[in-house]
Amino acid sequence: MAQIEVRNLSIEYRLPKGEGTFTAVDSVSLDIEAGEFVTIVGSSGCGKSTLLLAIAGLVPIADGTLTIDGDAVEGPGPNRSVVFQEASLLPWKTVLGNVRFGLEMRRWRQGDLSKRAMQYINLVGLGSFADYHPHQLSGGMRQRVNIARALAVDPAVLLMDEPFGALDAQTREVMGDELLRIWERDRKTALFVTHDIDEAIFLADKVVVMGRNPGHIKDVIKVDLPRPRRGEMLDSDAFAEYRRRLRAHLAADMATMHLVREAV
Ligand SMILES: Nc1ncnc2c1ncn2[C@@H]1O[C@H](COP(=O)(O)OP(=O)(O)OP(=O)(O)O)[C@@H](O)[C@H]1O
Ligand SMILES: [Mg+2]
What we know:
The protein is an alpha/beta fold. It folds into 2 domains: 4-79 and 157-263, P-loop containing nucleotide triphosphate hydrolases (Rossmann fold); 85-154, no CATH class. The chain contains 7 helices and 10 strands. The protein has helices spanning 48-56, 95-105, 113-123, 139-152, 169-186, 197-203, 237-263; strands at residues 4-14, 21-32, 37-41, 63-68, 71-72, 80-83, 157-161, 189-193, 206-211, 216-222. Helix 2 runs parallel beside helix 4 (139-152) and helix 6 (197-203) crosses helix 7. The structure holds adenosine-5'-triphosphate and magnesium ion (MG). Magnesium ion binds next to helix 1.
């Protein structure tokens, strides 16, 4: 049994003013093994965030089943942490306060909270910024705090929706390397949504490609590059082949978008 099992999952959003419902994810099935790093790519609006939110327990399921370790997902739970694109930090709390707050929210009882929070702040390389407030940090640093907060509560599954989407290309690459270094330590199950094809391949054990109208899974590509991943791998033939496959999928999706537009 896979840790996360998604079976014929459909998610619908209610449209405003009683205009019915919109199917954002249509009959999606996916297995995610414990300790796997899975990335999701696909054109805007294909349901990547919706699928991630469903696994987080933040949107209701219209049809199908979704289980984590055999238990049906019926809402958020302590076995999952979510990191969004915008670091959702409390502006009036320090870095330490924010990471501690994550533990307090989960009613963490084991040991000293500040000590545990500091361990994770050190892990993301912000040890000397523990007393800073969010506005005194760069976007990349704020996102590191966010990741520290998500990891400190020791979730079985880490869900990330374009966590580096607001960062410049260079910072993004550094953050990807950092995230893998941290992930290598205890290999938690990770689900990571991105628009960046190279990032999707570089991080993943497998890349899920989604398509739109309505949101579905087009392909699941297993990435057989060795770990730990190294920057040089981006220049390898194997990487180029993965890149080519993903680009072909996304180009096909863009082509159908044009057709839809012309038909309208
Ligand atoms: N709360 C909502 N109410 C109604 N429709 C929604 C809602 N949230 C998302 N949708 C619709 O569901 C579809 C999928 O949205 P979703 O945010 O999952 O896409 P995405 O793949 O994450 O896109 P992006 O890459 O732009 O973040 C879109 O057509 C969107 O308009
Ligand atoms: Mg999204």
